[in-house]
Structures are given as structure tokens and as C-alpha cells.
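<instruction>
Derive C-alpha cells from the sequence
<data>
Labelled lines for chain and fold
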Amino acid sequence: MEEKSFGVAAHFRRAPHVAEELRKITQALADRHELQVQGGNMMIELRVGGGDKGGALRRLMGRAPMAGTKPIFVGDDLTDEPAFVTAIDLGGAGIVVGDRQGTRAQYRLSGPVAVRAWLEAFVA
């Protein structure tokens, strides 16, 4: 279990056999307490409504020193999709890491090693 600012995430990478039961329990809790469920890469998140990475990125981009700049958002999970959309809406870009399909990101890097190499080249 991972505590988050506005909810919790249950990771099941080491126990994939519990995924379906975990989804049922999470959905029941969400229905009972008016929460949102967000699936991800071998995890499921339960959180209050209205909070996602896109909203967080938009708030950050409205503050100094980010205001007036263009965001580049790099992510590898389904939970990163709202931030890809926001980055594009703000004139920036989204970069998905890995081979996940159905993404709104315009660019792709193969994995963490490629991300590090891209960042080093970008900074240089």
C-alpha cells in the first residue's frame, strides 16, 4: 500500500493473483464513499474526486518559476495520461516510457535508460 496526498494506491506486482479481488474491493469502497478508482500498471488507486496528475501539472505551471514556460511530462503509467493531455494543452509535450499503447503522449522513450540519456542530452 502506498499512501498518497489524496488517497491510497495498492500495488500488486508481486501478487498478480489478487488483482481481480482487489479491484472488486476498491470499487465497493469507491461506491460506498463517493471516491474515484484509477487503474494503473500493476496497481489500483483509490482517491478523492478531482485530483489527478493533469490538475497537479496545471497548478504547478501557474506558479513561479514555471508560469510562462512549456511543460514536458514523462511518464509510464495510465495515471500519467491526464498530465500528457495537460502538457499538450499548455503548449508542451507528453513522453510515454515503454511500450504501452493507447496513449495521448506524442513521443515515446523505450525505458528508464533512454529517459536518462534523453535528459542528459537535453540538459547538455
Remarks:
- The beta strands are 2-4, 7-11, 36-40, 43-47, 72-75, 93-97, 107-109.
